[in-house]
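Reader question, answered in our methods column.
A reader sent in the components of a multi-part assembly and asked whether the whole thing could be modeled at once rather than chain by chain. We filled in our standard form and ran it. Here is what they sent:
COMPLEX SIZE: two components
ENTRIES:
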Amino acid sequence: MSAVVAEHDDHHDHHDHGPEKGILRWIITTNHKDIGTLYLVFALIMFFVGGTMALIIRSELFEPGLQFVDPNFFNSMTTMHALVMVFGAVMPAFVGLANWMIPMMIGAPDMALPRMNNMSFWMLVAGVLLLASTLFMEGGAPAAGWTLYPPLVLQTGKAFPFAIFSVHMLGISSIMGAINVIATIFNMRAPGMTLMKMPLFVWTWLITAFLLIAIMPVFAGAVTMLLTDRFFDTSFFDAAGGGDPVLYQHIFWFFGHPEVYVMILPTFGVASTIIPVFARKPLFGYASMVYATGAIAFLSFIVWAHHMFTVGLPVAGELYFMYATMLIAIPTGVKVFNWTATMWKGSMTFETPMLFSIAFVVLFTMGGFTGLMMSVAPSDFQYHDTYFIVAHFHYTLVPASIFILMAAGYYWLPKWTGNMYNEKIGQLHFWLSAISVNILFFPQHFLGLAGMPRRIPDYAIQFADWNMVSSIGAFIYGFSQLLFVYIVIDTIRGGTGKVTAEVWEDAGKHSLEWTVPSPAPYHTFTTPPEIIPTEHF
Amino acid sequence: MSTHGAYYIPHKAVWPVLATAGLMLMLAGFANHLNGSAIGSGMMLTGFVAFLVMLGLWFALQSTESESGMYNHGVGISYRMGMMWFIFSEVMFFAVFFGALWYARNISIPHLGEGGMLSGPGRSTHDVLWPAFQAVWPTNGPGNVGGEFEPMGAFGLPFINTLLLLSSGVTCTWAHHGLLAKNRDQLIKGLLATVGLGFLFVAFQATEYYEAYHEMGLTLGSGIYGSTFFMLTGFHGFHVCVGAIILSVVLFRSWKGHFTPENHFAFEAAAWYWHFVDVVWLGLFIFVYIM
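And here is the structure of the entire assembly that came back:
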């Protein structure tokens, strides 16, 4: 029945020490490690589902003209690729890492609200199922872009209400997950684990959780208005009734801009966790990292209309949002500087997690610079809705968020499974990914600057060469990710051998998870740890 | 921060996953219903009932565990943080609709009228499409969407409802004092009064809606005024219902002798929620009815 995890382990009656047997273990589990695994596996599957959609897009764009799919399906693919990757892959993957790592990093026995944790995961699955079901409906899946702008999105067929309710369920899931993270971090830290001793991954997730609670209800409100505009005669986004389609854009981007930080802040956190370990130095500028994260989160709420420079804002608005957006470069620059300074004169080694992290620092910085280019409102009139923006945000998501998720996988797999992954194949995976991701996305900058619009299945002949290069890169990148699946399965089955508790040299100095055995037992820190390592030892 | 020395880690429960399945069935049913499918409403109802039953069983389990003393101080803090941030997420949800109201009154309507603060595009919508439209509030837009209507005044039923809801905040606090003073009679009477006032509020709001639809020509389809009016007050009314149901459960548990001055998270959560609903109503009364 009940399971009071007491201070003494000799109290065995009514404890669930081990996992339940069979499939039920995964369905009704309240264990943070089980739920973390569920999230991570689900995210990996969705990564391939979304990736398949991306390859359909890149196949169609391999040559000018219409080859494989009809235009409406193509638009469905761009829309669904984005929704699946954002809500099905990247966000759940970070929630999975949060579930696995936060309790172990702060010396807590579990997440604060374990049953809600379970519900949060299943809400995610339910939301994604609703979304996926739209692929098979009359009129096709939503095809108005992931931003779901009215009036276009109101023309969606039978899929429309399903997509809306899917967003609602995904929103509830995210809010519950975020509440859990906040309660865990504020209430469950081991004695001595002060806020400024927490690993940066925990800090970035704390701030991300606040972002999520603030923005997911906003998105829910926006899509609710879409629903009532379509089915219940309201006029929120209809000028004839006194509404305004631009209102939707404001609300959406009030959600949407912080949302991109929801995907990047935990990325920063993992990078700040991995780089010091392989540079064998404490993280440079720990406190400034924390403040920079907070500053980025704050700024993310006051820059949303830089997504709307061409919509007809007053000049004062254009200027305000332009300068406010440029401010983001400062805290972000602090972070890049700190990562570089952490590596400076470090005794660096280049295992796969470190390779992915270094590639992240370099390539994310490039994605940041193109962002800065677009923050200049008059220039953005040229870049807006071209492949330049596609290149920009893919640089901030693929070689940043996705690379860091891969890095996190390699970094913590030995802790999760007790086995070492295959370093050779890992490095092969890295080099294939790092090279092909640039073949894939770099040419899209040229295409965008030359004027190729995004979200079109066909294009003018002068764009043919770089599109072909980009598509070739996409296929190499996509298929090389299968190596990761192979490595994960191989590692679970034994990999290249058992690992120690610490796994990486001196990792125990950096963070608590390396002080428990590998694989991490089903319950860790049922009594709080006594020695708290710090980022700045 | 040493609260988790013996932090209660709950055993597994089937209710969260089943409640999720119920909610998903309900939403899929609603979507089918909106698409004109005959099975939609049945699915929706089944899902809704399943969701409620599962939620009820989950809460029953929690309350049994709480009463048998399994939760310590640390667990109580987690629950309170959970409730607090849940209410914050609700605040953000209402903020969207208040924001839409603000935007309509200060940007889109002036814009459709005389050009407003935006030059250029706003002007051309006015000049080309609706040159005769004057920016006034309330309005159902230049297209006279939904036909003529009479706006809802502040000092009829809405004012009475304001008094009802504010009084219910007082009775709720009175009940809390009773609980803290171990005066069960005061606790139960206070909760009864709160729940009663809450449901009376809902009844009056239903009357208000009935009048709006049948006598004033004011509907959800009455342009941006009708949209913002009904969505804001409607979501608020829904939250009042939810709050009153939560308080009813707390009342029932008080009758059964649950809660002590030290351990009464459910009461606190319900009271916080109720005050939140109260504050939203004050916002509505000022920005929707008076201004």
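What stands out: The two ends of chain B are 47 Å apart (CA to CA). Chain B touches chain A through 83 residues (CB under 8 Å).
Send us your own complexes using the same form.
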